[in-house]
Amino acid sequence: MTSRELVIATLEFRNHTGRAPRHLWTLPWAEIHHGDMVERIHREYEDDFVEAPGILEEPAMEQGDPCAVGSYRDSWGCIFTNIQEGVIGEVKDPIVKGEEWEDVDNVHIPVELLTFDKEKVNEFCRRTDKFVFSGACPRPFEQLQFIRGTENLYMDLVEMPERMEQFIKKMHSFYCQWLEEWARTEVDGLRFMDDWGSQNSLLINPGMWRRLFRPMYRDYIQIAKKYGKKMFMHSDGNTLEILPDLVELGLDALNAQIFCIGVEKLKPFAGKLTFWGEIDRQHILVESSIQEVSQAVKKVKDTLWRDGGCIAQCEFGPGARPENVYEVFRAWDAIL
Q1: Cα atoms found within 13 Å of the Cα of residue 138, Cβ hemisphere only
Q2: pTM over cut 0.85
Q3: Tens-place pLDDT, residues 160-198
Q4: pLDDT digit string (tens) for 251-267?
Q5: Confidence of residue 18 (pLDDT cuts 50, 70, 90)
Q6: In this structure, are strands 274-276 and 310-316 parallel, antiparallel, or unpaired?
Q7: What domain range includes position 178?
Q8: Measured between alpha carbons, how far is residue 293 from residues 42, 259, 324 in Å?
């Protein structure tokens, strides 16, 4: 079974091979501080996922390195300031400052991202037997925070200035177009993301989430289904309150902080949603023993595996012990 076939079988709960697909996420911090271990994991436990190249005919506004010390400008025009090498910085001076969003025209809609070379994407897909992700990843809630600032955005979500509402529609239209352009290629999966959880609950009222953001996610997932693609989502924090919604919408896989939520609380979703990782990066990867890492992997497998439904994924980021990250992949291969 190829990597592509393995991933699809896992997402469809018909994986009888005895191996969970593998996906190591690395921040540049890991490459800088533990490059040898990153290389070893990739060599011994090769990823089953790759991302297709997005070669643009028209260059985007993006400028600088998001993980280098200094300033970085994203494709929407938001300026990030970074004081630590190897991680992503923060927006300190949002673009939209007016209470009524009267300066929203200063935001650039990155239509250049639609000019990627589709034939080169298709050639890449044909040359690999791995599961291929698209280069598009909408993130409406987070991008709004970058544009407006988190505190201001929370207040605006309650009051909903007219120009903000118009901009959200414009942003969503662009995101749908971006996903659809990628869905017309030969990639296997599409993605979107937004960090929705605090340690204990959603960052906004679930009713507000369902009114404003669920319809956007519904459209993204429907685009994937229209073209026969799998849809993946990432969201940090405790997102338990919206998991029934994501299942109902037809999401295939979710990368969530399942130990923050509580692995045992996710059992009702086993066989309905594939958990695209992760192993706890707050405590287990940072401070636990190798044996405890192995036990954590076993807990995930015993609770959530249903001839699929789990992807052996974790993030190698600041503070993680390299031997613990290695053990995640060794344990997954040993346990199934």
Answers
A1: 29
A2: yes
A3: 999 999 999 999 999 999 999 999 999 999 999 999 999
A4: 999 999 999 999 999 99
A5: confident
A6: parallel
A7: 3-335
A8: 19, 12, 6
Residue 336 clears pLDDT 90, i.e. is over it: no
Tally of domains within the chain = 1
Per-residue 3-state assignment (H helix, E strand, C coil) for the chain: CCHHHHHHHHHCCCCCCCCCCEEEEECHHHHHHHHHHHHHHHHHCCCCEEECCCCECCCCCCECCCCCCEEEECCCCCEEEECCCCCCCEECCCCCCCCCCCCHHHCCCCHHHHHECHHHHHHHHHHCCCEEECCCCCCHHHHHHHHHCHHHHHHHHHHCCHHHHHHHHHHHHHHHHHHHHHHCCCCCEEEEECCCECCCCECCCHHHHHHHCHHHHHHHHHHHHHCCCEEEEEECCCCHHHHHHHHHHCCCEEEECHHHHCHHHHHHHCCCCEEECCCCCCCHHHHCCHHHHHHHHHHHHHHHCCCCCEEEEEEECCCCCHHHHHHHHHHHHHHC
Q: How would you label 208-246 residue by residue, b for 16+ Cβ within 10 Å and e otherwise?
A: ebeebbbebbebbbebbeeeebbbbbbbbbbbbbbbebb
- Cβ 94 vs Cβ 146: under 8 Å: yes
Question: Which domain CATH number covers 102?
Answer: 3.20.20.210
